[in-house]
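Batch manifest, entry 17 of 40.
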Amino acid sequence: MSANLPAIPTTPADPKKNPTYPQRVHLNERPALEALLKGWDERISKARKKVEVLGNHPTRAGYDRLYAQMLGGRDQIYESVRRMPGEYGDIYEEDKHKLDEAVAALERVFAKWDA
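Output type: structure tokens
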């Protein structure tokens, strides 16, 4: 799962609105961001079921650690999804970078999980 969002055209500034108030041009990205979060939630949910099935298996500690890392990555994605549609400029770019890094981290954790 990649955090590459589709290119969405931005709308020009409305001349009837205060030009010093930043225009929220990323509001239309919310559905794509929420779909990204939902996809990761489903994947992490499947991992949780595997941890529950392990019971007292000797390898459970390693899976518990990886599952905890998954939850941390999921929280980072959630925070970006919550903030990004209302941000603009450098703050939006910073949140986008954090989202991309969280997705990359989760992909690395799942690669270890599947190994």
